[in-house]
Design goal:
The protein is an all-alpha fold. The protein has seven helices and no strands. It has a domain of 149 residues.
Length: 216
């Protein structure tokens, strides 16, 4: 009897183990096909907004025109064929990125030339000494802008160069104001010195006149 009971227990345990192994896995939720191009759509729209904000399309007209065609095509396909829409968004993104690169390269080049001119003027009146804080901020912002430019972070790079120009301009203005005040102070001192010399000469002339009268 004991052997029979053991056999029955083993059989029941085997059935439970087999049943556990045959339990179907939990279903994996599949992504909604309509959500697939959402990231591409957002990226394309963000790039397009940046281009319009900085008017970068004027620097890469052909690339922008072609990108717009892909973008409009993708927008129209969103309700019909999400896979085709995603492909069009990807094509638009690649072209928009090229427009951004070309456009910001032009803008940054112009900014750098302006910065060089203002920095030279600031150094010419010793702004690096008279307005050290502002001048050093200009240098730091310029260096950071170059690092971002190398990394292809075009918009942040452009913003850093803009800040650099602002700081160098501020350093020039501060140094110019200090120099103007110093020049005014020197002019006032010179004026006082001239007045003193004139008074001395007048006194000397009066003394000479008196001496001449005494001689007579």
């Amino acid at each position: 009897m004991k052997n029979v009971r053991r056999l029955l227990l083993l059989a029941a345990l085997s059935v439970l183990v087999i049943a556990a192994c045959e339990t179907p896995p939990e279903p994996v939720e599949e992504a909604d096909p309509e959500d697939i191009p959402a990231t591409e759509q957002e990226q394309a729209r963000n790039l397009r907004n940046t281009i319009m904000e900085y008017q970068l399309d004027q620097y890469a007209v052909e690339e922008f025109t072609e990108a717009e065609q892909y973008f409009e095509e993708a927008e129209a396909l969103m309700d019909e064929d999400v896979d085709a829409a995603a492909e069009s968004y990807v094509a638009a993104i690649a072209l928009y990125e090229e427009v951004v690169r070309i456009g910001f390269t032009e803008l940054i080049g112009g900014l750098k030339a302006e910065i060089a001119e203002v920095r030279a003027e600031a150094e010419g009146i010793r702004a690096d000494v008279a307005a050290r804080t502002e001048f050093e901020q200009g240098v730091e912002s310029y260096d950071e802008g170059e690092d971002l430019e190398v990394q292809g972070e075009w918009e942040p790079a452009y913003q850093m160069f803009e800040r650099s120009l602002d700081r160098f301009t501020a350093s020039y203005d501060v140094a110019r104001e200090k120099r103007d005040r110093a020049d005014e102070a020197m002019a006032r001192a010179q004026e006082k010195e001239d007045d003193t010399e004139r008074q001395v000469r007048e006194m000397e002339d009066e003394l000479e006149d008196e001496l001449e009268e005494d001689d007579d």
